[in-house]
Structure formats: C-alpha cells, structure tokens
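Open question from group meeting: does this chain pack into something compact, or does most of it stay loose? Before anyone orders reagents, we agreed to write out a predicted structure and look at it together. Recording both the input and the output here so the notebook holds the full record.
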Amino acid sequence: MSQWMFRDELQLMEINVPRAALQLARAVAYPNLNVAQYMSQLYELSEEGAEVIGKGLPVAMQVEQLSEFLFGTAGFRGNRSNYQDPLNSFLNEVIDRRAGIPITLSILYIDIATRIGIPAYGIGLPGHFIVGVHDKETDIWLDPFHEGRPLDLSDCADLIRFSTGYEGPLEASWFEPIPALAILARILGNLRSAYVGSRSWPQAAEVIQLLRQVQPGEPEHLRDLGLVYYHKRNLPQAAHYLNSYLQRRPDAGDAQVIRDGIKHILDEWVPMN
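Structure tokens returned:
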C-alpha cells in the first residue's frame, strides 16, 4: 500500500488543513514525520481545551477562554525573536516548540476551536493571517500571533500597515473566510521566501514544486523554478522551466528579461557540453 502524501490531501473534497500542513512539512523537511501522532496531539489539546470552556456561554466568552488556554496554559506564542525561521511554517515544529507565525498559529487555533464547537475560520489579511469566529450578529476577529488579542478594523489596518506598508482603504474581500488551498499556498509562499532568502536552493525547488500542485494554473511558479534551478547550476532545467513560463505568458511584463536570461543560460550551457 502506497504512503498517503501531500498531493493526496489536495484531492479530497474537503481538505483537512492541519493534516495537509503536516503532510507539507513531511514533503519538504521531515520525511519520517508521523502525521497521525501530531493529529493525536491536536485532538488531546482540544480535549483539554474543552474542559476549560464554559458550556452554554456566549461565543465571545468561549473565544476568550480558548485564547487563555492556548496562549496561557498550553504556552503557545508568536515567535517574535526569530520570525523568518522556516521552522515557524511547519506545524509539527509549532506544536513541539509552542512557537509560530500568524498563519501556523491560526491553523492551530482554528482546528482546536472547531473541534470544541467554536465556528472559527481563517482570514488572510495582506501580510498577517488572523482568525475570525462567527457570532450571532457580528463576527469576532482575533490575532493568535499576539496571544489571541481581539481586533477591530483599526487594529487590522495597523497590522497590514506594519507588515506591508499599505495605508489605503481596507477591502471587504480580505475578511472573507480563506479557502484551504489558499492557506496551503500561503504557507508554501512563506517557505519559498525563507529558502530563497537564505539561498537554500534545493529546499526552495521542493517548495515551488509543491506550490505547482496547489496552484497548477499559475505560470509564475515555472519562472521561479527556472530561476532556482539556475542558482543550483542545473542549466538544462533552468532553461526548460523558463521557456515553459514564456510559452504560458509570452506577453508577461518580465518576458524580455526572461528571454535574455534563457540566452545567457544557453551561452553558459553550450560551452560546457
């Protein structure tokens, strides 16, 4: 029987985001990761959390109690001192180290909340992932990176401005529940940035290949893969992926730069042969 893998998670009608995130971690960095063991730990956390959540209380009070449990009793926190560490993007490491970045802490929070019966969902604000919770008349927003701090529109604007520099009007679409595939793509995007920034080319290539599974219609992944293979000095693969990008996006804004890059690659490659 073949092993269940990340690509198999993507084929499900309803993707289990924590399990898919763990499969992602196994595909990128932890080939021997026991996914079932970590899913059991999430179940145990939800059981412990359920014991401290007052049954029948208003949703807002239950959210407050869950935040106190996860970021107090259980000890989860935002990793402010080493935010760019790729380990923050691996859910197994977040569970082990009790530290993560907004998106991985939000995945954890949403999973535990949902198991308990709190209707939580992810919100992909530009530059900062947060959690929403459906309430009777108005939704609640909170920031797991800052110990579950409640948020209003002004707070959200501050988070976006701090993360991206954007100071324009907020868009209503930013606050809609984010689909599972978009969450996984965002995790992989964070990892791509981290590995490219540290010039860890083999890991960057693996991450971009996974991004192609999540977003097969995005030609930019072909371009990025070509550039990574160039840095790996795998010139045939670099030329192949860059040319594939141009075939999909012949009128792209960077098309001429890429054409020049392919010519440069071929000029390097041919003398080597």
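Observations to bring back to the group:
The chain has two domains: 6-175, 217-272.
The two ends are 42 Å apart (CA to CA).
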